[in-house]
Recover the amino acids of this structure.
């Protein structure tokens, strides 16, 4: 969908894209208040958008890092508990991290990923394991 210059249309989803510029023009020309943007006397157009704008959120991988001390069983428990994996999937993820140094437990929006990282780090600290969990933008 492209943004096209339009005059005073009243579609329910039509919005002025640059309201600050629109306001400045409107104030500068001080013309017909019934015409949005009041642009007739300045020969300018207000750019509007008709389609409701949706933006897909950025996604983040949550990763576990390998270390030499955290017990394998603990990592499996973490993956089951915080990433809702079956014991079989959790074991595969744990082994991938153990063998490769790092592995993905899931992909989430920013706030969910941040919450997972905090939950895992707090749980590991509470049990005195050095397990590290991080997030990275996809
Ligand atoms: N390397 C650990 C061990 O041999 C197991 C482990 C796996 C630790 C995954 C952390 O993220 C991790 N006990």
């Amino acid at each position: 969908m492209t943004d096209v210059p339009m005059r005073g249309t009243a579609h329910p989803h039509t919005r002025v894209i640059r309201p600050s510029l629109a306001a400045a023009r409107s104030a500068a020309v001080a013309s017909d208040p019934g015409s949005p943007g009041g642009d007739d006397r300045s020969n300018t157009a207000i750019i509007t958008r008709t389609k409701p704008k949706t933006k897909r959120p950025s996604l983040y991988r949550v990763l576990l890092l390998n270390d030499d001390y955290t017990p394998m069983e603990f990592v499996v428990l973490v993956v089951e508990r915080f990433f809702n994996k079956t014991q079989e999937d959790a074991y595969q993820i744990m082994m991938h991290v153990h063998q490769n140094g790092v592995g993905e437990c899931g992909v989430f929006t920013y706030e969910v990923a941040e919450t997972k990282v905090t939950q895992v780090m707090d749980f590991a600290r509470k049990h005195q394991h050095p397990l590290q969990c991080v997030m990275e933008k996809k």
About this structure: The first helix runs from residue 19 to 29. The radius of gyration is 26 Å. Strands lie at 4-6, 15-16, 46-49, 59-65, 102-109, 132-137.
